Amino acid sequence: MKYPQRTSYNVAVRNIDKFVFDSILKQGIPATQKDPNFLRVYNGGKAIVYEIEVGSKRYALKCWVEDLGSLKFRYKEIDAYLRSCKLPYFVDFAYIEQGILVSGEKFPIVRMEWISGINLKDFISRSLNNPARIHELSKQFLVMTQHLHEKDISHGDLQHNNIMIDKKGEICLIDYDSLFVPKLSKEKDNIKGLPGYQHPKRNTLRKLSSKADYFSELVIYLSLLVLSEDPSYWDDIKDEDDRLLFSKDDFLCPKKSKVFKEIRVLSPEIEYLVMELEKSCKETNINNLQPIEKITKAYKGETKEWTLPSKKSDGINHQSSYNHSSKRIDWDVFKTADKVHSEENTNSDLWEAAFSEDIWKKLDNVTHSSKDIKEQISQSPGTQASEQNSFWDKFETLWDKVTSSITSLLNIFSNIFKK
C-alpha cells in the first residue's frame, strides 16, 4: 500500500473531527503558526507530526509517509504491553491502525501525549552549579532501569535525545520504534543507536533483546556520576551530538582511553564502575552482559554523601543530605543556579528556552544537530524559511499557500452562485 505524501495529510488534519478516528484527537484543534493558514508541523525521515490541542492538553499526531512494515505489528504490541505495565516512564500512547482517512483510504497513526521537557544533556548543562541534582538524577535513572528490567523491557536506543526530564524532574523516555517487549523477541534489531552509547558488538545483535540496554545504561549512569563529581568534564562533551562522556574509540580500546584513565581517581565507586565498564567492553556476546542493578549491588565500598540545594538557594525545601537510596527527592528544575557555567545556560527560566526540546524534536532516524533543530523549530512562523530548511518544509509552505488560495476562490464563487 502506498502511503500519502506529507502534504496530503493536511486536509484530513484540518478537518480532524471528520477524518481522524481517535476519540481523543477528534475533539482537538490542530495547532497553527501565527498565520492560521499554516499548520504547526514537524517533518522526519519517515513521518510527519502534527501538534493537536485538546482543551488544556497537547498531543502529537504522528503519520507515516512510508509503509511501516513490521513496525505496524511492533506498535500494536508495544501499545498493549505498556498499557498493562503502567510504568511512569512512558507517555500516554496509542497506536490506531485505521486512524486517518486520506484520499479515500485509511492509514495508521500514533497519538502521544506531548511532553514539554529538556533532554538529558540540556538538563546536565543547566545543573552544573548544582551537581547534587545530577547525582540525584543518576539515582532516579538507576531505579528506572531496574523497573524496566523487571518488566522485561528495553528501549533499544538509550541516549540523551531520548531521555527527557519534565518540569518536576521526572524521567520520561521517548521514541519507541526500537522498543523491546516480550512478544517482540523474534523481531529484527534494526535500530542500533548512537555509537557513544552502544557496545562495540551491538551490530552483531540480530533480534530485539531485553538486554540491549545493559551497556548503554552503565555508560549513562557512570557518566552522570562523573559529571556530578567533576562538572569540568562538561566542557569536553557539551558540543558532541552523539555521546556523553565516552566515545566509540574509548569502548574499542579502554586501556588506551584518556577518559578511562582520568576518571578512575575521582572516587572508589567510580573506579569500580570503570573496571566494570572495561569488562563489558571486552565481552563479545551482548547477551552475556550483566544488568546494572547487579553491578551496583555488588559494590561494597565507600559512597559519597551529597547535600541538595537548600531552600534559600533555590526556593524549594529539600532534605539536608542523602546517600545512595532510591527514595525520591523532589526539586524544581525551573530553578537555575546563581552562577552560569556555560553560554548555553542564559535563560533565568530554563523552560522558556525548552520549547524546541519537545518530544518530537527527533523523529525516526533523521540526523540533525541540536542547533539546526532549534533554529528550525523556533523560527518565527509565517516568515520566509531559511536556506537550511528542508525541501519538505519549503514545499509544505508553498502547498499550503496554493490550497489556501484555491479554498478562498471556491468560497467566492460559492457566494456568487448563492446570490
Termini distance? Answer: 44 Å
In total, the number of domains comes to: 2
Question: Radius of gyration, Cα only, in angstroms?
Answer: 23 Å
Any idea of the CATH topology of the largest domain? Transferase(Phosphotransferase), domain 1
GO cellular component, one term: cytoplasm
Domain Protein kinase: 1-286
InterPro entries: Kinase-like_dom_sf, Prot_kinase_dom
Pfam families: Pkinase
Explained architecture:
By secondary structure, this protein is an alpha+beta fold. The chain folds into 2 domains: 6-114 and 362-411, no CATH class; 118-357, Transferase(Phosphotransferase) domain 1 (Transferase(Phosphotransferase), domain 1, Orthogonal Bundle). The protein is 34% helix and 11% strand. It is built from 14 helices and 9 strands. The strands form 2 sheets. Strands 1, 2, 3, 4, 5 and 6 form a 6-stranded antiparallel β-sheet that branches. A 3-stranded antiparallel β-sheet has the order 7-8-9. Helix 5 (131-150) runs antiparallel to helix 6 and helix 6 packs antiparallel against helix 10 (268-282). It starts with 8 loop residues before the first helix and ends with a helix. Mean pLDDT is 80; it is low at 310-390. It comes from Phormidesmis priestleyi Ana. This is Protein kinase domain. One of its GO terms (molecular function) is protein serine/threonine kinase activity. Keywords: Kinase, Transferase. InterPro entries: Kinase-like_dom_sf, Prot_kinase_dom.
